[in-house]
Amino acid sequence: MSPAEKPTPKQSIKAVRGTRDLLPDQTPLWNHVESTARAIFSRYGFGEIRTPIFEDTTLFSRSVGEETDIVSKEMFTWEDRARAASEKAQSLTLRPESTAGVVRAYIEHKLGETGQLQKLYYIGPQFRRERPQRGRYRQFWQIGAEVIGPQSSGAESPIRDAEVLEMLSSLLDELGIRDWRLDLNSVGNADDRARYNAALREALAPVKHLMCPDNQRRADTNPLRVLDSKDEADQEIINTLPKIADFLSPESRTHFEQVLAALDASGVNYNINPRLVRGLDYYTRTTFEFTVTTGLGTQNALLGGGRYDGLSEMLGGPKAPGIGFAIGEDRLILTLQAQAEADAAAEAGAPSSPAVSSPVRVGQAWSPKKLDAYIAPIGEAQNPAALTLARDLRRAGLTIEVGDGRFKLGKSFDTADKLARHIILLGEDEVATHTATLKTFATGEQVKANREELTDMLKGVKP
Ligand code: AMP
Question: Could you give the domains of the chain?
Answer without folding.
Answer: 27-189+249-339 (3.30.930.10), 371-459 (3.40.50.800)
